[in-house]
From TrEMBL:
This is TCTP domain-containing protein. Belongs to the TCTP family. Transmembrane segments: none annotated. GO terms for molecular function: calcium ion binding. Residues 1-174 form the TCTP domain. One of its GO terms (cellular component) is cytoplasm. It comes from Dictyostelium firmibasis. It comes from the Eukaryota. Pfam families: TCTP. GO terms for biological process: asexual reproduction; cell differentiation; negative regulation of autophagy; pinocytosis. Signal peptide: none annotated. InterPro entries: Mss4-like_sf, Mss4/transl-control_tumour, TCTP, Translation_control_tumour_CS, Translational_control_tumour_p.
Length: 174
């Protein structure tokens, strides 16, 4: 399994994994990752190996059942944190992020810079054009300088799609 970590910012959070269906879109600029809504059980189940007396029950112990919760599998597994932007603050963030990412690309893959710059500009314009359709997620450390994943729903779909800048991620094999 490969996990993709942020290369910009200080935290280098894990942001996605090849355990989820991934496609490259926008001329290979973006990883499009299919997420799913899943139900998780919040009840704590502890097996101590001891034999409880027949008359003891959860009610006797004062344990409340926590129930179940609907979550997005990628968000839950990688501990992503939803954040918010208005169009102006996102524009400021993405300009700074692109500057940092371009500096990394110039060091590691200078031949990629021109294509990246053109494709990234086109992609960001498309995002800003449909800004209200997106939600934004950071890694678990909420690194303000790091990668912010975009989440949206395709029309008629109930499971979300996450978008990541491919060049902003480092693949780590586990």
């Amino acid at each position: 399994m490969r996990v993709f970590k942020d290369i910009v910012g200080y935290s280098h959070d894990e942001l996605c994994s090849d355990a989820y269906a991934m496609n490259e879109i926008f001329n290979g600029l973006i990883f499009e990752v299919q997420a799913k809504m899943v139900t998780i059980d919040l009840d704590v189940k502890v097996n101590t190996g001891a034999n409880a007396a027949a008359e003891e029950t959860e009610e006797d112990e004062g344990v409340d059942a926590a129930g179940v919760q609907q979550v997005i599998n990628i968000v839950n597994a990688l501990r992503l944190v939803e954040t918010s932007f208005d169009k102006k603050s996102y524009t400021g963030y993405i300009k700074a992020y692109m500057k940092d990412l371009m500096a990394k690309l110039e060091e590691s893959n200078p031949g990629r810079v021109a294509d990246f710059k053109k494709d990234a500009t086109d992609f960001v314009k498309s995002v800003l054009g449909k800004f209200d359709e997106y939600k934004f997620y950071t890694g678990e450390n909420m690194d303000a300088d790091g990668h912010v994943a975009l989440m949206y729903y395709k029309p008629g779909e109930t499971d979300p799609i996450f978008l990541y800048f491919k060049d902003g991620l480092e693949s780590v094999k586990y």
